[in-house]
Amino acid sequence: MLTKEFVSLIAEASGLSKKDAEQLLSTTNAIMRENLMAGKAIQLQGLGVLEIKERQSRIIVHPRTGERTTIPSKNQLVFRPVANMKDELKKV
Fold first, then answer.
1. C-alpha angle 11/13/17, rounded to 5°?
2. Is residue 80 classed exposed, middle or buried when 0-12, 13-18 and 19+ CB atoms within 10 A define those classes?
3. Long-range contacts of 39-46 (CB under 8 A, 24+ apart)
4. How many Å apart are CA 46 and CA 88, to the nearest integer?
5. 14 Cβ partners below 8 Å, 6+ apart?
6. Which residue, among 54, 30, 52, 56, has the nearest Cα to 39 in the 3D structure?
7. Which residues pair with 60 in a beta bridge?
8. With 90 as the cut, is the pLDDT of residue 89 above it?
């Protein structure tokens, strides 16, 4: 779904104008991004939790040459769905 389509759906469902819905979405995105960068998890009611976790460094082996390479640790955005969402996804 494109952002324009999402904004239209928000505007329809809430009765806001498309301009107000777009501003609401961009403000929400900015607040979520700010809190994620501050290390806070964001719980989305009925969907799940968004958080940034550190992925540890690891050693990989090239299958042909056998050469070992270390991949450095990095931060990764992780989404954990709530239990009932997991069940619904299995039915799709």
1. 20
2. middle
3. 46/82, 46/84, 46/85
4. 12
5. 21
6. 52
7. 69
8. no
Judged by DSSP in three states, 45 sits in: coil
pTM over 0.70: yes
Element of type H or E holding 32: helix 18-37
With bands split at pLDDT 50, 70 and 90, how would you rate the model's confidence at 84?
A: confident
Mean pLDDT value across the chain: 94
Residue 1 burial (C-beta neighbours within 10 Å; 0-12, 13-18, 19+): exposed
Asked if pLDDT for residue 91 goes beyond 90, the answer is no
